[in-house]
Amino acid sequence: MVETGHNHHHTPPRQTAAPPPLPLGAAKGPTWTPAEQLHQLEYCIHSNPSWLETFILAFQHYIVMLGSIVLIASTLVPRMGGDHGDKARVIQTLLFMSAINTLLQTFFGSRLPTVMNSSFAFMLPVSSIINDYSDRNFKSEHERFEVTMRTIQGSLIVSSFINIFIGYSRAWGSCTKRFSPIVIVPVVCVVGLGLFARGFPLLANCVELGLPMLILLVISQQYVRRVLPRAHAILERFALLLCVGLVWSFAAILTEVGAYNNVGEQTKRSCRTDHSYLITSAPWIRIPYPFQWGAPIFRASHVFGMMGAAIVTTAETTGTLFAAARLSGATPPPAHVLSSSIGLQGIGMLLEGIFGACVGTTVSVENVGLLGLTHIGSRRVVQISTAFMFFFSIFGKFGAFFASIPLPIFAAIYCVLFGIVAAVGITFMQFANNNSLRNIYVLGLSLFLGISIPQYFITTTTADGVGPVRTDGIWFDDWLNTIFSSSPTVAIIVGTLLDNTLDAKYVDDRGLAWWKPFQKRNGDVRNEEFYSLPLRIREYIPTRFL
Fold this sequence. Notes:
Blueprint: H1 51-80, H2 84-108, E1 116-118, H3 123-134, H4 141-168, H5 171-176, H6 181-193, H7 200-203, H8 207-222, H9 232-256, H10 265-271, H11 278-281, H12 300-327, H13 335-355, E2 361-363, H14 365-374, H15 379-394, H16 396-403, H17 407-427, H18 437-459, H19 474-483, H20 487-501, H21 512-515, H22 525-531
Antiparallel strand pairs: 1-2
Helix pairs in contact: 1-2, 1-3, 1-9, 1-15, 1-17, 2-13, 2-15, 3-4, 3-12, 4-12, 4-13, 6-12, 6-17, 6-18, 6-20, 8-9, 8-17, 12-13, 12-14, 12-19, 12-20, 14-17, 15-16, 18-20
């Protein structure tokens, strides 16, 4: 062989270490890290939009909360023997008390942007009181109405001390320390999902109004931005008001042209804008005052049933507060905040009994959903909304005008807002182990029973409010039927029991490492930022109540 004079020495290529294998599914896209706060909120709990936007958003909160009050009054007052004038006065009282309780909670209670609204948890015990007087003889139906209201007053006054005690004794705060993200997920989910009967079933009572409202709200708020990008900011915040105005006007036109003249009574009540008779019967000016129906009547059998509703509102409020904190950019409410909120809710219930409301209040789920719909979690907006509640509760004719909005329009709104609250509950799962079969078991059973058990109690309850538990003690029946008709209450009982008795395979499976700092007053530096009382009030409150 002939060697050439050009000998090339090639160095072998450097061997690079093979990259570590990607986790399963990583090649398909990024994974999202847990986020304690929702970054798409435009205004969080202590930031505020302009004053003009604040007032419009506050009015929107007033419109959203009005539907529950009208529905409760329209259901209960006729059964008590009250006329249209009595119904108007009951609505004014409920609005007035909602305003007072909302101010109390946003200033001294939870401090979250939550509207306090009439609670459906009181329907069963109130129905029991109505049934007790239905067979008695009275001089007039109005007298029967007043005696029924006075009995409700007495029951609310006594049962309010349940919430006051478990709140300010810190008993409820101690219970909530047993919670974990695994418990919060089903509780917050059923806070929204458990109200499905007020969604499409109520909407279907007048499809020609409810369905256009639902479709119009979704399209205008979510899809119009593709066509009109500049209008997106306005529609994202105020689409609900615009859609209500359009569909309500459409309902008024249908009413005027006689579209509902030859239909059934149920269709008239659901579709017509003049069938509530509130505008003609409401007083021009009336301020609700203490014991307006007379001296309260105290009966032990009715008080015990109302106590069950007080316990239910505690569970409902707790679940809704966690959703409100998430949608307003705050940290999960600590145990002492939950205790003070429940205690103050008891004081609010005491005031409701004194002023003559027909039911107690709880945190409004629909208004919490509105925080997520508008991306605005400002506390000031909710506080300003109480000005509209006070105004329309005192000037009855003006309040009756908005109370004439057909209920299927509200039902269409609920379909969106309740769904948002239910979905917020799912987001808490990111702080626990999603792949733990133990956690999946607890979540699945709590969620299913939280919907299934109340559904059984509700569907087997007769039209006059008699539930499936029927013993010789009516008070005991009302107590159990009320508790197990509440989805959040059942979910809390099942979830807390399972989560604290089933051993977790790994320490962090339950998410307690993330959860526990938020349950202490000074466990997280942001707790004081979100939940501190205004104007240094805390310095003047005895420490045993904090």
